[in-house]
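Ticket #4471: structure output looks truncated?

Reporter: J.K.
Steps to reproduce: submitted the chain below (448 residues) through the standard prediction queue, then opened the result file.
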Amino acid sequence: MTKTAPVHVIGGGLAGSEAAWQIARAGVPVIVHEMRPDRGTDAHQTDRLAELVCSNSFRSDDAEYNAVGVLHEEMRRCDSLILRCGDSHRVPAGAALAVDREGFAEAVSEALYAHPLVTVERGEIAGLPPADWDNVIVATGPLTSPALSEAILALTGEQSLAFFDAIAPIVHKDSIDFSKAWFQSRYDKGDGADYINCPLDRDQYAAFLAALGDGEKTEFKEWEQDTPYFEGCLPIEVMAERGPETLRYGPMKPVGLTNPHRDEKPYAVVQLRQDNALGTLYNMVGFQTKLKYGAQKDVFRMIPGLEAAEFARLGGIHRNTFLNSPRLLDSSLRLRADERLRFAGQVTGVEGYVESAAIGLLAGRLAAAERLATDFMPPPETTALGALLRHITGGAAAETFQPMNINFGLFPPPESERRIKGRDRKRWLAARALDDMDRWLGRAAAAE
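Returned output as attached by the reporter:
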């Protein structure tokens, strides 16, 4: 019996880990190439697979009214390793799915190392993969090594797009002053007490904005000067530059919260979300920053309740890169210039942990089907998985392509005779997506 040749997955992040899992569960051997710890990055701190480098939140888990919640549920039905480990290492976060980042990464790593068809090899793939690797998934994410990035650019003749992504600080819970802060979820969602809230009055908010503007920032290199930020992950000080009320209508909005220490509504609120299963670490929600470390401590300790805050990790900033996928990739996520290379994850121009893993899931299934010489019918565009795939492989205009989170705007609208609006429309789109996902999975199972 001829031995099945392995699929090679370059990158052991969320997308690469999910791709490897899907390949192995299809009965195809897979080799995961992860450059850490031989070569580190500006954002990673460990050598674990699927390490989370920014937030610990997979965002909303509402599969009835929220598109990312629908994506969660579709991936669960596809036996996603990322969602399985996320669910098993969940921490309180209201209606969101947030995880203990260390437990989560350890669980993903253990699952892949334990699978008999998965091999993990450490070391950088410097440049294009060897010519005899005929089925490759490049899932190197936004922190693709320079050598591989340059090789891909030389192959495609394209200029990669790039943007900055910022990391939020993490605070030790026992350093927070609860005579000023309190536990409450906005509008008492989830368990009603999933976030720590630090209130500011009008004068405190004004002083905070002034200090934020004056704080010493990270200086960009010359080649980074014109690199745009991704709108969904703006540094806190960049948001503040857009106007004094921007933060109060964004991450510091006070609505849905009641300060038990004072008989008045807060003018602005900083929320912190649990970051580990022990509940000892909390991250500052929406507080991605390019402030230098010393300035971060000075400015963030101006927030009531955080005057004596001890930081387990300070914020940071790094440059992310992604392909112009509508122009460079075909409908199967293969590079048009070299069809043995398939791309997955954030490097394809999706934004967010779950979206990256979702494209890894699809890339893994596509690669496995190719290796087994079986037909693969992509999920319908009415599903979250199908909508994402369609968007990055031709649904978006190449001339204006930018990173995109999953949202109901990517789903085909209801038939013209159906005039559904507001929450009813979201619920209808979500229900249709999950029904169509079940039918797609049923057809796939029958074909297998």
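Triage note (M.O.): checked the attachment and the full token line is present. The domain at 7-160+323-447 is CATH 3.50.50.60 (FAD/NAD(P)-binding domain).
Status: closed, working as intended.
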